[in-house]
Amino acid sequence: MASHGNDAARDTYESKVPPFYYRPTFSDCQLLREQWIRAKYERQEFTHPDKQEPYSAGYREGFLWKRGRDNGQFLSRKFVLTEREGSLKYFNRNDAKEPKAVMKIEHLNATFQPAKIGHPHGLQVTYLKDNSTRNIFVYHEDGKEIVDWFNALRAARFHYLQVAFPGASDADLVPKLSRNYLKEGYMEKTGPKQTEGFRKRWFTMDDRRLMYFKDPLGLPGLCPQDAFARGEVFIGSRESGYTVLDGLPPSTQGHHWPHGITIVTPERRFLLACETEPEQRAWVEAFRKVVDRPMLPQEYAVEAHFKHKP
C-alpha cells in the first residue's frame, strides 16, 4: 500500500472478487472482517480464482458443530450443500442415508450471531418448513471454514436467483443473498384476546416477519415445535392497512414493562411492551421502516398465507 497507494492495491487484490462474496463493513463481526483481510492479502483469493473453489464449486460437504434441539449441546453433524439439488442437508450420523433436514436454498438465510450462539464463529441458518420459520445454530473451530460455508451458501443463492430472475443484474441480486435481522431483543406480549397476562419473549424482525421465541436460541426439550418460532406476525405496508403506534390502549393491564407498542394490522392489534424507552424507540423505528416501504408483488402472497394460518 505504501508503494502503490490504496486504490491501486484494491484494484490488484480485489480484481476477481466473486459478486456473491460478502464484503464486510465496519459493523460486521470480527470474524468476517478478519477473514476478508486474510482472503485478500494473505491467501490472495481474489487474484487467483482457483483458490475460490471452496465456495464457488456448487457443492460442499463437511462437518459443523450444530446445537441440539433437545439438550442445547453442540454435536458434530455432516452437512452437504448442493446447488444442483438446490438444498442444504444435514445428517445425524455419518453413515445415514437419509438427511435429518433438507433446507431449500430458495428460502434459506445465514447470518453470523457470535454473541447469541456463544462462539466467535457462530452462524445462524434460517429456513422455512411448512412455511414456518426454523433456525439452526452452527459453528466451526476454523474461521476460514465457517466463512467459506457462509459464502458457499451465498453463491448457491446467487445462482438460484440468476435462474429465477434471468433479467436481473448482479447489483439487484446481491442484496437478496443473505440479510441481517432488522432488530432482535426481548419484549413482552399478550394473546389475541388481550385478556391474559403479558409474557416475556425473544423477538426477531426478519424483513416483514416478526417472530417470537421463548429465548434467543429457542427452548430445548419440551416439544418438537420448539425449533420453530412460537409465533409470527406479518407486517405489511401503510397502504395495506398496517401501522405502528407508541403506547398501549388505556385499558391494557398485565404488562410489567412500561413502554408499550401497538402494531395495527387489517385483522387485529398486537400489543407489546419494552423494558426501556430506548428499546421502544429502536423497535418502533424498525417497524416503521418496514411499514413505510411499499410491498413487493411476491409479498402479497406471503401476506395471504399469514391471513389463512389457523
UniProtKB/TrEMBL annotation:
Record's subcellular location: Cytoplasm
Q: Supply the Gene3D superfamilies for this chain.
A: Arf GTPase activating protein (1.10.220.150), Pleckstrin-homology domain (PH domain)/Phosphotyrosine-binding domain (PTB) (2.30.29.30)
Q: Which Pfam families match?
A: PH
Q: Which domain of life is it from?
A: Eukaryota
Q: Where is the PH domain?
A: 57-158, 180-292
InterPro entries registered for this protein in UniProt: Arf-GAP_dual-PH_domain, ARFGAP/RecO, ArfGAP_dom_sf, PH-like_dom_sf, PH1_ADAP, PH2_ADAP, PH_domain
Q: What is this protein called?
A: Arf-GAP with dual PH domain-containing protein 1 isoform X2
Q: Which organism is it from?
A: Neomonachus schauinslandi
Gene symbol here is ADAP1
